[in-house]
Inverse folding.
C-alpha cells in the first residue's frame, strides 16, 4: 500500500494493515494515531520508537502468531503467509528439520515459549547457531533478544506493507 493511502484510510483499515506486522495493540494504536506520516522514514522512526521496548505481555501476545522456526505456518492469515515467505529461503532438508526440531524443543524447555528469530536473510545453520547461543542467556537477556527479534520482524513487514 502506498503511504498516502495508508495515511487516508480509516483507523480500522490502517490497524488491519499493521496487525500482520506484529499483533501488539499498543504499537498498532500508536502508529494509527500518529498518522499522517510525511515520509516512510517518519513512519519507520515512529514504528521503531513505539516498539522499544515491547513488554512481557506484548511479547507473549505477538509470539502466539509465530510458528516454530522450520515449521510451515498453517492457515490463510496474512501472518501465516508472511511467515511462510520469511522461512522460504531456509534449506530445510531432513537433517536440518530434525536439528531445528531438537533446538526448538530445547529452547521451549528452557524458556517456555517458542524460539523466535528473524529468519529473513539468515541461513538454517545461522539460525541453529543462534538458538544454541541463546540457550545460554538468562531469562531477562533472552526476553530482550526476543523483543529485538520481534521488532526486526515487525519493521521488515512494515517496509513491505507500506511503500512509496
Amino acid at each position: 500500500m502506498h503511504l498516502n493511502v495508508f495515511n487516508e484510510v480509516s483507523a480500522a483499515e490502517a490497524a488491519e494493515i499493521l496487525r500482520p506486522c506484529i499483533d501488539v495493540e499498543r504499537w498498532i494504536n500508536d502508529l494509527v494515531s500518529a498518522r499522517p506520516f510525511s515520509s516512510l522514514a517518519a513512519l519507520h522512526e515512529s514504528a521503531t520508537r513505539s516498539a522499544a521496548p515491547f513488554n512481557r505481555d506484548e511479547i507473549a501476545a505477538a509470539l502466539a502468531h509465530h510458528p516454530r522456526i522450520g515449521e510451515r505456518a498453517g492457515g490463510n492469515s496474512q501472518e501465516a503467509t508472511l511467515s511462510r515467505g520469511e522461512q522460504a529461503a531456509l534449506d530445510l532438508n531432513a537433517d536440518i528439520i530434525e536439528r531445528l526440531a531438537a533446538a526448538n524443543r530445547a529452547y521451549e524447555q528452557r524458556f517456555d515459549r517458542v524460539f523466535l528469530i528473524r529468519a529473513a536473510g539468515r541461513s538454517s545453520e545461522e539460525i541453529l547457531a543462534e538458538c544454541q547461543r541463546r540457550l545460554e542467556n538468562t531469562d531477562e537477556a533472552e526476553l530482550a533478544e526476543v523483543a529485538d527479534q520481534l521488532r526486526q520482524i515487525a519493521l521488515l513487514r512494515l517496509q513491505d506493507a507500506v511503500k512509496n
Q: What stands out?
A: The two ends are 8 Å apart (CA to CA). The chain has a mean pLDDT of 90.
